[in-house]
Every structure is written in structure tokens, then in C-alpha cells.
Amino acid sequence: MAGRPPAGARRGRRLGGRDAERPTGCAPLPPGVRAGLGAVLLLVGVSAVAVAVLLLARFADVVALDESLDTGPLGGFVLTVLQILALPTVVVWAASWFVGAGFSLGSGSSIGPFAGQTGPLPALPVLGAVPVDPPAWAAGLLVLPVLAGFAAAVLVRRGGATTGALPLGLLTGAVAGVVLGVLAAASAGSAGPGRFVAVGPDALLVAVLAAVLTGVPAAVAAAVVRPRSGPSEPGDAPQ
Predict the structure, then answer these.
(1) Per-residue pLDDT of the chain (239 residues; tens, 9 = 90+)
(2) Which residues 6+ apart lie within 8 Å of 215 measured at CB?
(3) C-alpha span between 221 and 225 (Å, rounded)
(4) How far apart (Å, rounded) are the C-alpha atoms in residues 211 and 77?
(5) 143-158 helix and 31-57 helix, angle to the nearest 10 degrees
(6) φ, ψ for residue 227, nearest 5 deg
(7) In 3D, which of 209, 191, 210 has the Cα closest to residue 199?
């Protein structure tokens, strides 16, 4: 018995070691869920950058629309606040554009990477940055959600996730599709009477396209990238 540490000391070491580092009742999210959320974050981040670039590139059009409204100082202040509040919605519309679903700015209009058709815009100058007539290469930007799904799965794989390629890809696509679909549904609605009673993306189409464009590359990434050696995480299944 000499040299054997007391039971209390052994318990103390366990409590101060790995067991103490893992918070009780806080199980980590499954790898596919983390990859799906990561893909959405990457795509929304890219969309925010794209909106900022468009606003800078078409600043003259935005200013011209703002001046044509002639709202006065108080009206101009209110309009500026409304546009700032509308920016998250515009970013979601940009993400819908990147997955190929696009969005509408009123009945009979369609703004997407393949074609653009619109009429009079709602009285919001920020919409002057909308790419109504996309260039021929715009369809190639659909590679962005593909890269987002691939990168998110690689990060999860490098984190030690050993989930099989197909389950990880399916869950990644499902999570990304549901989250982007919900965001698209929340960003759609009415912008005024008449033809502006319904603006925004088709939430179901956004969800389906996002699921495919992120889930398939996530499965490919999981198949070609080996997980980092280490203890498997809860919820992981061996390949």
C-alpha cells in the first residue's frame, strides 16, 4: 500500500483533469450539425461582404434614388434608419441569390444569378445596388455555397469527427437547408401595396438548393479528408 495515493487524491486528480474540463450537461453538437451551421455562417459572411461591395460599387445609384425621394431632413433620417434595419434582410436575399434561388421585388419580378427581371423598385434607396441584369459569369458564383459546405466539413473532420461521409453530408445539408430556409422565410413579406405585397425569396426553394449545394460537397470532404487522430466525439460513428 506504500506509495499508493489516497482515494481522495485520486478523485481530486480526476476532477482536475479531463473530467473537470467537460461541462456537465453540455453535450457537443453532432458533427453534421456543426458543419451545417458552419456552412451557413460562411455563406452569410460572404453575402454580407458582397452586399457591402455592391453598395460601394453602385453608391451613385443609391444616392440618386435617395435624392429623388426628397424626404427632407427628418424623413431622410427615418429612411436611413429603415435602410440600416433592412440590411440583414438584404444579406439573406444575397445568400438566396448565391444558392441560385434568387428573390423577387414584387409580382412578376425575379432577381437571380441566371436572369433578372424587375419593374419599379420599392422606395428604399439601398435597393439601387441590386444586380438586376447579372453578367454571364454570375452563375459561376454558385460555387460559393459548394465551397462553404466543403470547408465546413473539412473543419469538422480536422476537429476529430469520425462520422461516416454519407451521414455527415446528409446532416450538413439538412441543417444548412433548414436554417437558410427559415432565414429566407423570415426575410420575405410585404413591402407595400399592389405588386409589392410579396417580396423576397422562395423559402422552400432556398432550403432545397442550400441542402444540395452544401450537403454533397460536405459528403465529398468527409470522404477525402481523414479525421485528426484523437478520441472520437459523442455522436460520431466509425466509418
Answers:
(1) 455 555 555 544 444 444 444 444 567 889 999 999 999 999 999 999 999 999 898 888 787 777 777 777 787 788 888 888 889 999 999 999 999 998 888 777 788 888 766 666 666 778 777 777 778 888 899 999 999 999 999 999 998 888 899 999 999 999 999 999 999 999 988 766 666 677 889 999 999 999 999 999 999 999 999 887 654 444 454 44
(2) 149, 169, 170, 172, 173, 174, 176, 177
(3) 6
(4) 40
(5) 140
(6) -70, 150
(7) 191
